[in-house]
Amino acid sequence: MVDKNLLDMAIKFHGHKCPAMPLGLRAGLVALERLGIERAKNKELFCFVETGYAHATMCFVDGVQIATGCTYGKSNIEKLNYSKNALILIDVRKKKAVRVSLNPEFQKKGLQSEFVRLRAQGIEPQDIRPEIVDPLIENIMNQPDDVLFKISDVFDYDFKNKKGAFEWYECEGCGEIVFVHGIRIKNGKKLCIKCAGYDG
Length: 200
Ligand SMILES: [Zn+2]
Ligand SMILES: [Zn+2]
Known about the structure:
Helix content: 25-40%
CATH class of the largest domain: Alpha Beta
Structural class: alpha+beta
Number of helices: 7
Strand content: 15-25%
CATH architecture of the largest domain: 2-Layer Sandwich
Mean pLDDT: 94
Shape: globular
Bound molecules: zinc ion
Radius of gyration: 20 Å
Order of helices and strands: HHEHEEEHHHHEEEEEE
């Protein structure tokens, strides 16, 4: 059973009630369980999510972040932009990973729901009545893992974290602090990407 507080926290973080976010939450939780690890405190986990930039069910990623502790702030999550609902969670220290994808049978039913029909008409998730969305969330929270997901065996995955930079400079154009990867040299001056005119 998923902790009710975790779901509440996830809905608060996410901003509205929808089915895709809780699916991400459950996908992240089952990935942790299969790897036998806890939610990431720092970068001991890395997650690839296979969602894209503009499609129904992208909200999945917020559930994944809440469940796994792989977050955009810590930069231990990355979108692959395959426009699919799946994730690969990597235990960086043990070099093991698992892939969890939505069960197509379950996803097909979800995509035929009243909720998705209303969303496709341009109705915002927060304007969809609780009688429509609440039972969907309830159902997702109560289904067995194998109804919701296809879950791979645990496999080997050697992943190297990037080292976070602590070296910084003051941009000689705008005076703002820039970490080393963002510094460009132009006419002998150390400049940020913006001041160097390299931001397109
Ligand atoms: Zn959502
Ligand atoms: Zn600058």
